[in-house]
Amino acid sequence: MKKYVFITLVCMLLLVGIAAAAEVEATQVGSAVGQASPSGELGAMETLAPNVESGPAIAALATPVLVSPVDYITLYHYPRVTTLSWQPVTQATGYTIIRYYRSGSTWVRLSDVTVQGNLNTVYTWTFIGDQEGAWGVTAFNATSSSAFSGYRYFYYSTKPHIATPVPLQPYNGTLFIGYPRTTTLQWNPVPGAAGYYLERAYCYGGTCTAYTAVTLNGTSYTFSFVGDQWGRWRVTAIPADHSKFYDSTASTWRYFHWNSATAISTPVLTSPASGIYLYNYPRTTTLAWNPVPGATSYQVQVGYYDTTWHTYISTTTTNPYYTFNFVGAQQGEWRVTALGATTPFVNSAWTAWRTFRYMH
After folding, report:
1. How high does pLDDT run on average in the chain?
2. Is domain 269-358 given the CATH code 1.10.260.30 in the classification?
3. Do residues 80 and 126 lie in contact, with contact meaning Cβ atoms separated by under 8 Å?
């Protein structure tokens, strides 16, 4: 009886051990299935637009700092040989370069490139076409990898640009006086251009406000300017065949200024007569001219000659005459301008120079 009980206990213990072993094995198999390669995630990652890389970053290495080309640059050279560069990362033994090109609205990933060596931080390749590209870098060594650098973008435009128009009138800095403020802008024609894109603005207090841009076929444009203030303009040529040429670059801004007041008259000089010899001493000299209607004052300039001309006096007076003592027994000259109420834009023109000579 005791022998039978002992055998039964042994058998039960064996059965419990077998069941436990089976349960452990099942658990291990289940864990292995759960850690299988996440091929679905990798597949999804391939279709992501740049700057949305998946997977955890291991921060044992510093993130690469991209150097060249700068972000959002437009490149015009052909062939489209493109050199990417970044700063070396301490303890990195190599780098993975991730590249994309844009086809329509879709980003297409090119094959990743791996370069070996800590200081091997330049990669040159030929880009696919006249379109947008993106690139970024990850550093790695035998035990870890860095976070992804993020993307830089560039764009290739290898078709030539049509020539830039050359502005003719008005010259830069032109002052227009009068009313109405009719303004004509003119530029040279560009061979191969089908039209022109004209930009205009009016400026006040350092801020320029744009008019609505105008597209036209001719090489001039006339309009009424908005007020007594500064304006500016520039023009871009539009090619007849966009399959062969891009639009030109815009011409340099040209500036002009309007003042609708009428310039006051130029003073008429009366004495002394030009070229006169003077013998008086002391050399007290009175310059005189006719009064100018609308003038609030007059600016007088006097010079003397001593192997070259020098400015002796530059002053203003409210009188139509000015008295002073001349510098010496030598030749002198003088002229006058009338100053209006809104100086400097409605001043008269300067008179011609008159000369005199003191004999002692």
Report:
1. 84
2. no
3. yes
Sheet holding 81-86, edge to edge: 66-68, 81-86, 122-126
Q: Long-range contact list for 270-275, CB < 8 A, 24+ apart?
A: 272/354, 272/356, 273/354, 274/354, 274/355, 274/356, 275/355, 275/356
Q: 45: helix, coil or strand?
A: helix
CB contact at 8 A, 136 and 91? no
Structure confidence at residue 176 (pLDDT)? 85
Q: Would you tell me which CATH number, out of the four given (2.40.110.10, 3.90.870.10, 2.60.40.10, 2.70.210.12), belongs to the domain 167-259? A: 2.60.40.10
- For the stretch 278-290, pLDDT in tens is 999 999 999 999 9
| pLDDT tier, 244 (very low <50, low <70, confident <90, very high otherwise) | confident
Number of Cβ within 10 Å of residue 74's Cβ equals 10
The pLDDT, as a whole number, for residue 345 is 53
Q: Which CATH superfamily is domain 58-156 in?
A: Immunoglobulins (2.60.40.10)
Sequence-distant (6+) residues with CB within 8 A of 324 are 284, 285, 302, 313
Pairing of strands 269-271, 174-177: unpaired
In angstroms, the Cα distances linking 136 to 13, 66, 193, 267 are: 62, 8, 40, 72
Residue 133: exposure state from Cβ atoms within 10 A (0-12, 13-18, ≥19): buried
Candidates 287, 285, 314, 318; CA nearest to 301 is 314
Query: Cα Rg for the chain, rounded, in angstroms?
Result: 42
**Which DSSP symbol is given to 253?**
P
State pLDDT tens for residues 101-147: 999 999 999 999 999 999 999 999 999 998 999 999 999 999 999 99
CA separation for the pair 54, 65 (Å, rounded): 20
Whole-model pTM over 0.70: no
DSSP symbol at 285: E
